Amino acid sequence: MSSANLTLPKAAAYVPDLFLRRRRKTREVMIGHVGVGGDNPIRVQSMTTTPTTDVDATVKQTLKLVEYGCEIVRITAPKLADARALGEIKKKLLAQGVHVPLVADIHFNPECAMEAANHVEKVRVNPGNYADAKAFKTKEYSDDQYSAELARIEERFTPLVLKCRDLGRAMRLGCNHGSLSDRIMNRYGDTPEGMVEAALEFVRICQKNNYHALVLSMKASNPKVMIAAYRLLAARMDEEGMDYPFHLGVTEAGYGEDGRIKSAIGIGSLLNDGIGDTIRVSLTEDPEFEVPVAFEIAKPYQPNVCLTKDPTTAKPVESPGSGLSHVDNFYHYARRPTKELQIGPFKMGGENIVRVFNDFSSWLAKETEPKAKALKLLDLLEDALKTGKDLVPEIIEWKVSNRQELEALQACRRALGGETSRLAFLGRFTDFALLKEGLASVHLALYIGPRDIAPEERSRQFREFIGMAKAANIPVLLESGPCHHGWLEPATNLLKGVAACEKEGYTNLLLSFNLPTAEHLIANARLAVARMRVTGQAYPLHLRLSGNADIEAQRINPSIAFGSLLCDGIGDSVQTGIGENPKADLELIYNVLQGAGVRITKTEFVSCPSCGRTLFDLQSTTERIKSKTGHLKGVKIAIMGCIVNGPGEMADADFGYVGGAPGKINLYVGKNCVEKGIDFDSADERLIGLIKSHNKWVDPK
Predict the structure, then answer these.
(1) Which of 22-36, 377-391, 657-671, 673-687 has the highest mean pLDDT?
(2) Are 46 and 70 in contact (CB under 8 A)?
(3) Across-strand partners of 667?
(4) How far apart (Å, rounded) are the C-alpha atoms in residues 24 and 42?
(5) Res 31: pLDDT
(6) Do 99 and 610 form a contact (C-beta atoms < 8 A)?
(7) Would you put residue 132 in left (φ > 0), alpha (ψ -120 to 50) or beta?
(8) For residues 47 and 664, which has the higher predicted lDDT (pLDDT)?
(9) Contact between 462 and 449 (Cβ < 8 Å)
(10) Residues of the chain with pLDDT > 70: what percent?
């Protein structure tokens, strides 16, 4: 049976409300003294990276994590000696008055799980490798053969279930996209359906034995896959009357800003839906640095209660309609179909790439001469050419509220000359006389009239603006911002603007939301798109998030807002504003687009966060490989410390660099190991040679 033959749940089955966050109802599962699910806050956890048998080092690192606020600590136990060492680690922590719950991370070895259950509050097992081998073998299973395999797994897994039940231990059933068993792969494929079914097979064994202290996870290095898998799991569990809490994470998220962005996209998107009870951010860094990032992602959704009152009015809210849906399929990615717009040299909407808008007003304001402003913009373009990166401004927003700003725009356009083949201008006009004079100087126009004019005059000006734009064939940006009449009022106002333009016979429109929080932007964008689906309208959508002074929030909020919508196929252009540093603003936007998998401008790295299984120093190795290969646009390289998820994640990467044994590296192309047992000192050059042999190498500029 292939995944294509499976019946998917109805569109909104994974979440109670698409537009107003309602937390998914779950049972409470106690991990020692820490409650997960139910009415508890979103719990933050991390994982040690030291060898588990080095008890003192592991205790020291655990204490460091607790100091940073970590509420649950996971420790790997690949061998029986490691599982036994967990007892010593627990004793030393208790002797220091530290009662943080410990989780044993188990792969491949049920005996280790049985031993670890004697010492820790929770055992994590992976259904993909607890009782299954993974050799990428192709085999067709008859129903009888598949049932026989399930019986074998039940026999292997039941002793741990009974032991955890009797000792009062919790268990996490953690499925990874990169380590699905051959049995699951052959029947369901490398899909969210396969991940979900792998977990539910183990859940049913637990329920058969009256054991319910379960937490489930569906991790993947690709946020789109991860989001879809958790949604599908929530829907399937609802169908089967299950209410177990979820542990969220993007596995092998990577290093630095890229890892933070991918984690925020995956975890934040689900928290915004009301899904998720405990989270872990997986960074290729020292584990204590994961904890503050996790708290920042969770912060907008704590104390994780339902959004029963409108934040703008404090009045009770109702869903705008359970029959509305903003995408066809919440479990497999498809981009929202829209009409195509021409904005200066750029096409957007339709099948075109997601475009980048920038507001450089404060940055350009430091230059008094128009020519100097033009040169600063050219510097950004030339810098991108010199570095070989495609991090370029495309559509520049220019505020025109007085004559000086209009003259600066016109002079800047003249100074740029032919460079307008690489730039387009959005004019944000607030004065009607200046709008009439300056409309010919821009490629896209927005008019926001003064608030103190009479409604009749406002309406007249708007109609005249649309008429002028229609005559000049200049696209119009319709923008909706925050208002004091309701949480979802921006969507309603935006569609009223669309109706007014259509009444004037003009449909060359780009719709936009300019809202301050991820939650507000996601809700209104979803509602506007859902209503346009009903009416058959296909206007492209521009996503804009207001700036934030906090540097961590500058990364996290746009990642959640844009990432969530883009992973649902919604959004044709994006914009955020750090303000004083346009290069950082550009890099952030492009990193979010890359993290969401909608616009690739550099090498994609998948790297695990390290643990006691890791066979080389992941941080220094990742940095070294990035320095040598980071210029390879569109190439995906996985850097894995050990074999647990390595081969599986290779299937989602072009090339893989995996620890095979102490001092030895295995190289992969896709999921296939092509070179084995390479000395660590020569592995980098062998990787580069492998990339060259597949014609994916270019020399760095």
Answers:
(1) 22-36
(2) yes
(3) 657, 675
(4) 12
(5) 98
(6) no
(7) beta
(8) 47
(9) yes
(10) 91
- Owner of token pair 């025109």: 400
- H-helix or E-strand spanning residue 659: strand 655-661
Burial class, 267, CB count within 10 angstroms (exposed 0-12 / middle 13-18 / buried 19+):
buried
Give the single-character DSSP code of 417: G
Mean pLDDT of the chain: 88
- CA atoms lying within 13 Å on the CB side of residue 548: 16
What sign does the dihedral 387-390-394-399 (CA atoms) show? negative
> How many Å apart are CA 529 and CA 523, to the nearest integer?
10
User: If you search the block for the tokens 């839906």, which residue do you land on?
Assistant: 273
Backbone angles phi, psi at 226, to 5 degrees: -60, -45
Q: What is the mean pLDDT of residues 477-487?
A: 89
pLDDT class for 3, splitting at 50, 70, 90?
very low
- The amino acid sitting at 656 is G
Neighbour count for residue 675 (Cβ, 10 Å) = 16
Q: Give the H/E segment covering residue 105.
A: strand 102-106
Beta bridge partners of 424: 395
Q: How would you classify the pairing of strands 346-348 and 341-343?
A: antiparallel
Read off φ and ψ for residue 389, nearest 5 degrees.
-95, 150
Structure-model confidence comparison of residues 396 and 319, the more confident one: 396
Alpha-carbon distance of 332 to 312, in angstroms, equals: 33
Q: How confident is the model at residue 422 (pLDDT cuts 50, 70, 90)?
A: confident
Confidence class for position 423, pLDDT limits 50, 70, 90: confident
Cβ-based neighbour number of residue 542 at 10 Å:
26
> And the tokens for 430?
């607030």
Position with higher pLDDT, 170 vs 639: 170
In angstroms, rounded to a whole number, what is the distance separating the alpha carbons of residues 439 and 129? 63
Question: Closest by alpha carbon to 509, among 468, 479, 488?
Answer: 479
pLDDT of residue 20: 83
Secondary-structure breakdown of the chain: helix, strand, coil percentages, each rounded to the nearest 5: 45, 20, 40
Helices (H), 189-312: 192-208, 223-239, 256-263, 269-272, 290-298
Please state, in angstroms and rounded to a whole number, the distance separating the CA atoms of residues 284 and 293: 13
pLDDT above 70 (res 30): yes
Residues whose CB falls within 8 Å of the CB of residue 668, separated by 6 or more in sequence, listed in order = 638, 646, 647, 650, 653, 655, 656, 657, 658, 674
Does residue 158 surpass a pLDDT of 90?
Answer: yes
Query: Amino acid letter at 135?
Result: A
Contact predicate 611/48, CB 8 Å: yes
Lowest mean pLDDT, pick from 30-44, 71-85, 369-383, 514-528: 369-383
Q: Which residues contact 256 (CB under 8 A, 6 or more apart)?
A: 285
Phi-psi region of 587 (alpha: psi -120 to 50; beta: other; left: phi over 0): alpha
Whether the bond between 287 and the residue before it is cis, its omega within 30 degrees of 0, is no
User: What three-state secondary structure class fits 445?
Assistant: strand
Is beta strand 170-176 parallel, antiparallel or unpaired with respect to 278-279? Answer: unpaired
Confidence band for 648, pLDDT divided at 50, 70 and 90: low
